[in-house]
Design a protein that fits this description.
The chain is α+β, with helices and mostly antiparallel strands. It has eleven helices and 19 strands. The longest helix is centred in the last third of the chain and has 25 residues.
Length: 432
């Protein structure tokens, strides 16, 4: 899917203010445009509404957090998110084939579409206790910041825009998407941006809490599950069989021997990690299989492919050597299954979409922080579609841990920032 030409940044406002186009050349131009946007009466009403309804935003946060959403099991939380979105008011709402929840708020007819999304899934397995615990001004629960805060922020933006009766030029898709975490492998946004998927010209992922961060670069990754297989047998009686565990140990050693010097001198920052291992039935059995899961990340596609090639070579070398040592039985085989593929890429700092996010952040008295990460934005960025990932406000810590917490410190400010970045892109429709 190719991005379509960008629409005007801000069309005629109710007060007769003429807008500048998205081709503004200086940061000062964007600053003036955001100042005009924030002074619009309907926008001021919406900004005030976000503060006035902050308690409702927190209620949404707690309610959604306490609905488990483990990988590939987001249905219950998705249903609650959909129900709330319909109650707040959208022109149409649906759940797509993979479980993404989508609400369409129509604009005045430019045809352009901005998507603003939070991810429904968490990293935690089904048995995890997600009950919210309050201690002073801090609330604890697995997944409360990553990314239930994003979902609550998306709903708060929709609520404020509806309350203030803000009409926009471009259409907006409000989304709760599946599969951002771990083995989900960005499956929700991959489906959104598939060939023949819904039109999306710009994309905002609301992920975590950062009140000032602007993630405009995608960190690419490859993930594999490597499984060595053999006949297995008794450690004494079947001694001499090729051993899958021994082969896996060799593969890890050869992988690190090759990857360590390469990553130390690679043109782009690159990492590798063997994160999980398993297999075998008992201490006195030659295992019939041994497996490991590997994560590799890089800022550059070519360096990611290079460290991937090092892994492939290490696995085949280990397989051949272990088979050469056997004195009986069938040779080992190996399956190398890709379980994650996230492309890298970036949106330039001087791109209008990033410049708008910067101007909004400055206007709210915050210092913009730019970064690279592995988020839902990786997919549109890799396709040349402008995308950023920003936080939903407040303070959070301990993501992906059972001690994850959220503190509502200037949380409303984060919601205001998300809404202003949305409105800066879609533009206000001329209202009679």
């Amino acid at each position: 899917m190719k991005p379509s030409p960008s629409s005007a940044f801000l069309l005629s406002l109710l007060m007769g203010i003429a807008s500048a186009s998205l081709t503004a050349q200086s940061p000062q131009d964007y600053d003036r445009q955001i100042e005009q946007l924030m002074n619009h009466p309907a926008v001021r009403t919406a900004l005030d509404h976000i503060v006035e309804t902050d308690e409702q935003t927190m209620d949404d946060l707690v309610t959604l957090t306490q609905i488990p959403a483990p990988p590939f099991m987001e249905e219950e939380r998705a249903a609650a998110f959909l129900k709330t979105m319909i109650e707040l008011g959208v022109d149409s709402a649906w759940t797509d084939e993979v479980g993404n929840v989508i609400g369409l708020r129509r604009g005045s007819g430019t045809g352009e579409v901005l998507a603003v999304a939070g991810h429904l899934d968490t990293v935690f397995p089904p048995e995890t206790d997600v009950t919210v615990r309050v201690s002073g001004d801090t609330i604890f629960a697995p997944g409360i910041s990553d990314d239930t805060r994003g979902l609550a922020t998306v709903l708060a933006v929709l609520r404020a825009m509806n309350e203030a009766n803000i009409r926009t030029e471009a259409d907006i898709l409000f989304i709760g998407n599946v599969g951002e975490e771990g083995l989900g492998d960005l499956r929700g946004v991959k489906h959104l941006f598939r060939e023949g998927g819904p039109r999306i010209d710009h994309f905002i992922s609301v992920d975590g809490t950062s009140p000032n961060g602007i993630t405009h670069m995608g960190l690419g990754s490859h993930r594999y599950r490597v499984t060595f297989k053999g006949p297995g047998g008794h450690s004494w009686g079947a001694f001499g069989l090729a051993n899958p565990a021994h082969a896996m140990g060799r593969a890890i050693r050869y992988f690190q021997d090759g990857a360590a010097p390469y990553t130390a001198n690679a043109p782009y920052r690159t990492s590798y990690n063997v994160g999980r291992m398993g297999g075998g039935t008992s201490v006195n059995s030659v295992p019939f299989e041994s497996w490991m899961e590997i994560d590799m990340r890089s800022e550059g596609d070519e360096t990611l492919e290079a460290v991937d090639a090092i892994l492939q070579g290490a696995v085949q070398r280990a397989l051949a050597e272990e088979n050469s040592l056997r004195t009986r039985g069938e040779p080992l085989t190996v399956d190398v299954d890709m379980i994650g593929d996230r492309p890298s890429g970036e949106v330039a700092l001087d791109h209008p979409f990033v410049e708008q996010a910067t101007a909004v952040t400055n206007a709210l008295g915050l210092f913009p922080g730019y970064g690279r990460s592995s988020t839902d934005s990786n997919i549109p960025i890799s396709l040349g579609i402008p995308a950023v990932t920003i936080g939903g406000g407040g303070q959070g810590f301990g993501g992906h841990s059972l001690d994850e917490w959220f503190r509502n410190e200037d949380g409303a400010l984060g919601v205001q920032r998300v809404m202003l970045i949305v409105l800066a892109q879609v533009g206000l429709a001329q209202m009679s």
